[in-house]
Amino acid sequence: MPRPITLADAIRHHWGCPICWFVEKRLNDFIASSLQRWMTDERERFVATQGLCPAHADLLLRWASPMGIAVLYPPLLQLAADFVALWSTLGRMPNTKPSPMKPRCPVCAERAAAEKLALRELLDLLRTEEGRQIYAESRGVCLPHFRRLWTKATGELRSWLLQTQQDQLRRLSDDLQSYRQKRETLRRHAITPAEETAWATAVEKLAGRWKALAPTESEVSCDG
Ligand SMILES: [Zn+2]
Ligand SMILES: [Zn+2]
Fold it and tell me: Which helix (H) or strand (E) segment is 191 a member of?
């Protein structure tokens, strides 16, 4: 089995937020390795969650085969039918939890655990001089993860993080502008690797990667 990726791998090998990248990789591994168990040994436990939140249902579609869905979903649909029957009796939507409208999404639980681990690994890294240097030279984390990182940091690390985040944002803006100028003046050969990836990093730096962040409020939300 391949070694699970670490946060240090994510900082070294990814042009975007290392926490987003780490979490997304972990979730993909989690779904790929859980599918078989959800269909066999852990079937009852999976059914008891009442399904996946919208973001992770989308992720499931990427990994499960049509036959896998055909094994996993009949009991969930039965539960949803019971839920609607109760809705009919009550004359309003039942507020039971978990329910098809508020599933206890197992991928959300994994997402929270992976994010916690990534934040802890990053904070450990930032306790060393060398770690700070590696981080400062990287693109750094996205704004949503920056907020969580800053909240968990203490003492002078907080002000170091704020300064580093500003430097990273300004450097990214410079790279992006320089990328545009070089494209416009047909100096494409002079574009550096940092400038080449700046457009994709820019979008992710502000918003984070949707697949790695907690699902936002929607009609169907996770019971947590
Ligand atoms: Zn992020
Ligand atoms: Zn979820």
Answer: none
- Please tell me the distance between residue 223's alpha carbon and the centre of ligand 2 in angstroms: 9
Q: What mean pLDDT value characterizes the chain?
A: 92
Is 2 a domain residue? no
Provide, for the chain, the percentages of residues in helix, strand and coil under a 3-state DSSP scheme, each rounded to the nearest 5: 70, 0, 30
Which numbered ligand comes closest to the C-alpha of 144? 1
Each residue's pLDDT tens digit, 44-58: 999 999 999 988 998
Residue span of the structural domain in which 178 resides = 7-212
Q: Residues of 31-44 as b/e, b for ≥16 C-beta within 10 angstroms?
A: beebbeebbeeeee
57 CA to centre of ligand 2 in angstroms: 7
| Shortest-distance ligand to the CA of residue 111 | 2
Segment 203-220 mean pLDDT: 80
Identify whether 134 is part of a domain: yes
Query: What pLDDT sits at residue 212?
Result: 83
Tell whether 1 is covered by a domain. no
Task: Compute the distance from residue 72 Cα to the ligand 1 centre, in Å.
Answer: 31
Q: How many distinct structural domains can be found in the chain?
A: 1
Q: What is the radius of gyration, based on Cα positions, of the chain?
A: 21
Q: What is the mean pLDDT of residues 216-223?
A: 68
Which pLDDT value is given to residue 55? 87
If you measure from the C-alpha of residue 52 to the centroid of ligand 2, how many angstroms do you get, rounded to a whole number?
5
* Ligand sitting nearest the alpha carbon of 224: 2
Q: How far is the CA of 207 from the centre of ligand 1 (A)?
A: 8
